[in-house]
């Protein structure tokens, strides 16, 4: 009876975390849409809607292909999160949201030159590719969390399969790729400035996380000796 009760509690906790994560990602899409459309001053902005729909499509696909324990981890209230990560993630949100704000204002006031259709399409393809890398990394690493923490409660181990065979932080690479492609989809050259700032902050976060894993996660130092590069093979 006790074992059954524990299993039921774990199942209930998992379901709550999954629901919480679905609410989180839904709210992020709604907030993004509001910032884009309000700052642009109009509803009829085709590239904003393409971006929103592409983001929704990624979320829907991931909901089907991600293991429940991964979604649950991303939705759970985190314990033992690294203090430096709380600071960096708090800072990251500022340029990230500014990216959308500037994109909308740029569209309203036409600060940037109009981009050719093929450039928008290239941006969209790059955006999808970046998200695909992130999804691949998440499927290969069920400990892929929204916060940097050693997941003692889940028996945290080193992930070395999938894209982790080539670089140590493929998820961050994917995030940086789709971040830098976002202004191109939306047609705002100026929005590349906050996108680049956000990308730099993710590179900093990568460095801090890598050092944390070396110091606190058993087996990570050995893994780092085999997979030499953090983000770009042969570079860094």
How would you characterize the overall build of this protein?
It is a single chain. This protein has helices at residues 2-40, 46-65, 68-75, 83-109, 117-140, 170-186, 192-216, 220-226. The chain has 236 residues and is mostly helical. The protein has one domain: Up-down Bundle (Four Helix Bundle (Hemerythrin (Met), subunit A)), CATH 1.20.120.1630. Helix 1 runs antiparallel to helix 2 (46-65), helix 1 packs parallel to helix 4 (83-109) and helix 2 runs parallel beside helix 5. The model has no long low-confidence stretch (mean pLDDT 92).
Strand composition percent? under 5%
Share of helix among residues? Answer: over 70%
The DSSP helix count reads 8
What is the CATH level 1 assignment?
Mainly Alpha
The gyration radius over C-alpha positions equals: 19 Å
| Largest sheet data | none
How many strands in all? 0
CATH architectural name: Up-down Bundle
- The SSE string, one letter per element, is HHHHHHHH
Principal-axis shape: globular
Total number of distinct structural domains: 1
Task: Give me the CATH fold name.
Answer: Four Helix Bundle (Hemerythrin (Met), subunit A)
Class based on secondary structure composition and strand pairing: mainly alpha
| Average of pLDDT | 92
Low-pLDDT stretches = none
Please give the oligomerization state of what you see: single chain
């Amino acid at each position: 009876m006790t074992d059954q009760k524990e299993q039921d509690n774990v199942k209930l906790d998992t379901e709550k975390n999954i629901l919480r994560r679905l609410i989180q990602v839904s709210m992020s899409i709604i907030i993004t849409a509001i910032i884009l459309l309000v700052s642009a001053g109009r509803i009829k902005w085709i590239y904003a809607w393409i971006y929103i729909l592409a983001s929704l499509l990624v979320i829907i696909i991931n909901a089907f292909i991600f293991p429940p324990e991964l979604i649950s981890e991303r939705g759970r209230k985190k314990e033992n999160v690294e203090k430096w990560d709380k600071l960096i993630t708090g800072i990251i949100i500022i340029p990230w949201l500014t990216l959308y704000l500037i994109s909308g204002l740029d569209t309203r006031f036409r600060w940037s030159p109009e981009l050719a259709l093929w450039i928008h399409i290239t941006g969209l393809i790059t955006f999808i590719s970046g998200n695909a890398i992130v999804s691949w990394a998440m499927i290969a690493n069920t400990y892929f969390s929204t916060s940097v923490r050693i997941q003692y409660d889940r028996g945290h181990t080193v992930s070395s399969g999938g894209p982790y065979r080539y670089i140590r932080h493929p998820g961050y690479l994917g995030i940086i790729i789709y971040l830098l492609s976002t202004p191109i989809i939306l047609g705002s050259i100026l929005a590349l400035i906050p996108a680049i700032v956000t990308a730099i902050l993710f590179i900093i976060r990568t460095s801090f996380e890598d050092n944390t894993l070396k110091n606190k996660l058993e087996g990570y130092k050995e893994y780092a000796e085999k997979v030499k590069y953090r983000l770009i093979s042969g570079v860094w």
